[in-house]
Specification:
binds S-adenosylmethionine; 9 helices; Rossmann fold; globular; alpha/beta; 315 residues; 25% strand
Length: 315
């Protein structure tokens, strides 16, 4: 498998970023660290929940429009998928794109990526599958793309919503600069009733809570930390001003935790902000696309307008 980052480097970056986030005035953690092997499997379980409308809604939109996406030039060349996870949504496109030559899934969760890529390889034996275990927020300089093949970027799951506006614009611009001739299919969640959003991110079965709490277990496992799980709780909040769901891990008492030899003090009710999921209206998405050098060619949605799949072209 092509690897941009060695496991050793990855561990060092994890340690440095976790400590920086936990010692910041407002404790925070980049949501990419939620995805280790356990986190990736828990995320898959979330996508199966009744309460989690985004996956089934996006799947239905992709299914309905796959024949149209097949006419994009990249559907006969290389499909680069950002944050590919299980590659389950990709199957819908791969079934429709009989002339695709190369599939390049990129994900930070290396083992999960490897297993998903092997599954795709077995299911589509004539396709060249080139997984890249990497953080896609880092420069794309070394992507092994074949210059003669047109590129389609597939960026589903509303993963773009995990980034604050400036970072989302920066990431979209970086994708455009790395693949200036590409078209991109990007799945984006939309604003909707707060009750629907809160249930999707704090489901009755507690799977999203387990996904969030796994971050503390991961820090305990990998950074010799002593988070007491019973003293923290998952919290999902709708921040209307920022049009985003926020996930936090809330300390249930005043306590001190040791992480990689550092003592981290928590006040009662203090939180670690672990994920943002920004919800974009059609207008808001078109604005960030425009600011990052893309133009929206097409918007597909479901009958209730819950979710959108946008086709973008570099300007
Ligand atoms: C919200 S999930 C979406 C998964 C899948 N694409 C879907 O639509 O169901 C986000 C995915 O992006 C990956 N990911 C998150 N941040 C990443 C980063 N900075 N670099 C590479 N992969 C990342 C995660 O491991 C996870 O598989």
């Amino acid at each position: 498998m092509t690897k941009h980052v060695s496991p050793d480097e990855h561990r060092k970056t994890f340690r440095a970023e976790i400590l920086a986030g936990l010692t910041a005035p407002r404790k925070t953690c980049n949501s990419k660290w939620l995805y280790d092997d356990v986190g990736s499997h828990l995320f898959e379980a979330i996508t199966e929940l009744d309460a989690y409308y985004p996956t089934r809604t996006e799947l239905a939109i992709l299914k309905r429009n796959a024949a149209k996406y097949r006419r994009l030039p990249g559907a006969r060349g290389t499909m680069v998928e950002l944050g590919s996870g299980s590659s389950r949504k990709t199957d819908l496109l791969l079934n429709a794109f009989q002339d695709l030559s190369v599939y390049m899934p990129i994900d930070i969760s290396a083992n999960h990526l490897k297993a998903s890529a092997e599954r795709v390889r077995r299911a589509y034996p004539s396709l060249a599958v080139i997984p890249v275990a990497a953080d896609f927020t880092q420069p794309f300089g070394k992507l092994p793309l074949l210059p003669e093949l047109p590129v389609l970027v597939f960026f589903p799951g509303s993963t773009i919503g995990n980034f604050e506006k400036d970072a989302a614009i920066g990431l979209l611009r970086q994708i455009r600069d790395a693949m200036p001739e590409a078209t991109m299919i990007v799945g984006v969640d939309r604003p909707k009733a707060e009750s629907v959003l809160l249930e999707a991110y704090d489901d009755p079965a507690g799977i999203t809570a387990a996904f969030n709490m796994n971050l503390l277990q991961r820090i305990n496992r990998e950074l010799e930390a002593d988070f007491d799980l019973a003293s923290f709780a998952h919290q999902a909040i709708w921040n209307a001003g920022e049009s985003r769901i926020e996930m936090h891990l809330k300390s249930l008492k005043a306590q001190t935790v040791t992480v990689a030899g550092e003592h981290i003090a928590f006040a009662d009710s203090e939180t670690i902000h672990t994920e943002n999921s920004h919800k974009y209206s059609e207008k808001a998405l078109s604005e960030i696309a425009g600011e990052s050098g893309w133009r929206v060619l097409d918007v597909d949605t479901d009958p209730d307008g819950l979710f959108s799949v946008n086709t973008l072209q570099a300007n």
